[in-house]
Structures are given as C-alpha cells and as structure tokens.
Design brief:
Helices cover 43% and strands 21% of the residues. It is of the alpha+beta class and 385 residues long. It has a five-stranded mixed β-sheet with strand order 5-6-1-7-8. The radius of gyration is 24 Å and the shape is globular.
C-alpha cells in the first residue's frame, strides 16, 4: 500500500477545556482570547460560532455579535498541560508525529496496516481514547498525504471522521471552494475568483498557462497539484522551540537612545511573560538591532543562571545596547532568550516560592486575566499614554 497519513484536530480546544472544567459553561457560547481593546479571539465554542464569532476575529467585534457570551483570557499553561496529555496518546498510535500547533498534529500510519486493522477502526479507537482520558472531542482525517488528511479532518466538524482514498478523492475535492485549499489565503482566493475559478473543479480544469500568467508558474503548478490531491511532503517531527523572542519594526526610525531603551523594556517584559507561560528559563539573552540602512547587529550574553524575569532580561539588553553606542536611525529592535535549562523548574506556584517568584505569580495572574497590558511598568504606561 501507499502512504497513509492521519490528521487529528481538537475541536474548539481552549473553549472545550473551559466547558469541560466548568459545568456552568456547557451549552453556552464561550470565547477565549485577548480581552484588551485590541485583543483577538483565539478559540470559541461551537455555540459562539452560531453567532458568527470565529478565531482571529477582533474581540470587540465578537462582543458585538455575541454580547451574552462568556469571555475568558484562559490559561495557556493549563491548555499546554492538556495538550501534552493528548500528544502522549498520539505517540502510542504512530511512530512519527508532526505537531502543527498545540491542538493538532499529523500521524504517519504508513506501514502499520497489519497492526491497526482498518484505518476507520484505528481512528475510532484514537478518538475514543482521547475522549476517555481528557473528556475532549477530536476530529480526524485519514488520507494518502498531508494536504488531504488536513482537509478531511475539517469536513465534518465537530467530532468528525473522514477517510479520503484514491477512489473518492476527486469527488470530495471538486465541489469544495478554492479557499479550502491549505495555503490559499484571501488574496489568492480573490485572484482565482477573478479568473472565474470558484471551486476546486474549476481550478483543476484551468490551463497551467492561464494560472501562471496571473499567479506565476510556481504557484500555478502548486495549486494544480493540490487540485488533484497531490502532496509529497513527509510527516516529520518538529524540534521544540530553541528560543523565545519578540521584535518590532518601527514605521519611523527611532532617533534617541531613550526611545530605544523604552522599547527594549517593553520587549523584555513580553519575552519574560512568554518564558514563564511556557514554563522555561534561559541562559542566553540576545539583542537584535537594525539601522535604517538595513545594517543589522546582534549581541548576546550568557548568564551564570537561567532566567525568565523581565528586569534581568532588560538589564542585559540595555547593557548590550549601550555597548553598541548607536544613537539614532534605529529601524528594528528585538529581544530573545535561548539556552533553555532543562534542569530548572519554575517555582511560581510552589508553597515555598521565593519573593521574586511570588511577585511574578501575581503579575502573570493579572496578565492572564486582563491581557499582556493588564499590568506594566509605569514608564511604559506613560509612553503609551
């Protein structure tokens, strides 16, 4: 037999965890995301989707569409712990697992036909174990490649299970809108519609030359291959993140060291929060600086002890910045931390937590509830005002 790929996608993951954990949320529209004025929806329950709410929507619009919704900032650390449970299940079902995000992955089932019985029975078993162990629902797609498997898992959500075979592949693909093709964004979809291409069948029957004239030869070949379900990409496990960072490009170059140091303080605060949210500390702090002429500098320092604290990160990048001696014309600034120490465990919630850990526990609790700008340094508050 040929390749066999499974795509598993947890249904409304963050919102489903909240509904599982809070009985009073069940059957009600739950919306998880940034609660600040510029926040966006991360995940929403299917009850909320009936009101037109969807992920990546501005939270302000979600509140207008669904004022009766339950709006939560959520707990990423909790969601990550549940994700680890689910990925541990994946590892028992396939020798190769490729994470796509915290709540979805590809599983390579190639060569496992004699071990799993039928693909349908295997998928049903996996879905049942996820539900039994976590109380959550997954949708599954099985197909000869990654593109078709991911598309299949989305066809009958929630609690879906679709198997694409060489025999039914084109019948499934042809009626779907071109926007369902993985990687076709709004601009590409609009360009295709401008050519009279609305469904995948239209795309499949379009001459390569006509597509290439509008989208370029490479994109034309890529889309025509997907229109007939061709995708040769392997399922490959991903390396864990080696660094956590944040950078910003300015619409107008900064013209003073004081402006730059304020930005570095804000970046250090964001990076520190994300390190703590991921439960890691790092030893190497790096500064990235780009001038208006695109000349780029990177400077780093390795600390004797790993850190995840805003002020420690800031003091390092501040010293690195001052050592560079750049006074004006700054186009980009970035801060990152790497060299994660596997032997270090954050004690933010331990009973004997140190004073600094307790301080950051309080800070992070406020940020988790009100967004990253729920609490910040006074000088950054003055700057934003």
């Amino acid at each position: 037999m040929g390749r066999l790929v499974m795509h598993v996608d947890m249904d409304a993951f963050f919102a489903s965890i909240e509904q599982r954990d809070h009985e009073e949320y069940r059957g009600r529209p739950v919306i998880v995301g940034g609660l600040s004025g510029r926040g966006v929806v991360s995940t929403c329950s299917y009850e909320a989707r009936r009101f037109g709410v969807h992920s990546a929507m501005p939270m302000v619009r979600a509140r207008r569409l669904c004022p009766q919704g339950i709006f939560l900032s959520g707990s990423y650390a909790h969601y990550r712990a549940v994700s680890q449970q689910i990925f541990a299940i994946f590892a028992r079902y396939a020798p190769v697992v490729e994470p796509l995000s915290i709540d979805e992955a590809f599983l390579d089932l190639t060569g496992m036909e004699h071990l799993m019985g039928t693909p349908l029975a295997y998928a049903q078993k996996l879905k049942a174990e996820i539900r039994e162990r976590t109380g959550l629902v997954a949708s599954v797609g099985i197909a000869p490649n990654k593109f078709l498997a991911k598309l299949a898992s989305d066809l009958r959500k929630p609690d879906g299970l679709v198997i694409v075979t060489p025999e039914n592949r084109q019948a499934i693909l042809d009626p779907l809108p071109v926007g369902r093709i993985w990687g076709v964004g709004r601009k590409t979809e609009q360009a295709l519609q401008g050519l009279g291409i609305r469904c995948i069948r239209d795309l499949r029957l379009t001459p390569h030359a006509k597509l290439a004239a509008s989208l370029g030869g490479h994109m034309a070949s890529h889309l025509l291959a997907l229109a007939v379900g061709q995708d040769d990409r392997p399922v490959a496990p991903r390396e864990p993140a080696k660094s956590i960072g944040k950078e910003v490009t300015f619409p107008v170059d900064l013209q003073s060291p004081e402006e730059a140091e304020q930005v570095l303080l804000e970046l250090a605060e964001k990076v520190g929060y994300r390190l703590r949210r991921e439960g890691v500390k790092g030893r190497t702090v790096q500064l990235k600086l780009r001038l208006g002429n695109f000349k780029t500098y990177t400077r780093s320092r390795t600390l004797p002890e790993a850190t995840c604290y805003d002020e420690e990160i800031y003091h390092v990048v501040q010293e690195l910045f001052r050592t560079l001696g750049v006074k004006r014309g700054i186009r980009l600034l970035g801060v990152s931390v790497s060299g994660f120490d596997d032997d270090v465990e954050l004690s933010l919630f331990a009973e004997q937590a140190q004073k600094k850990d307790r301080l950051y526990e309080a800070i992070d609790a406020i940020k988790a509830r009100f967004g990253e700008h729920g609490i910040t340094k006074a000088q950054l508050l003055r700057k934003n005002k």
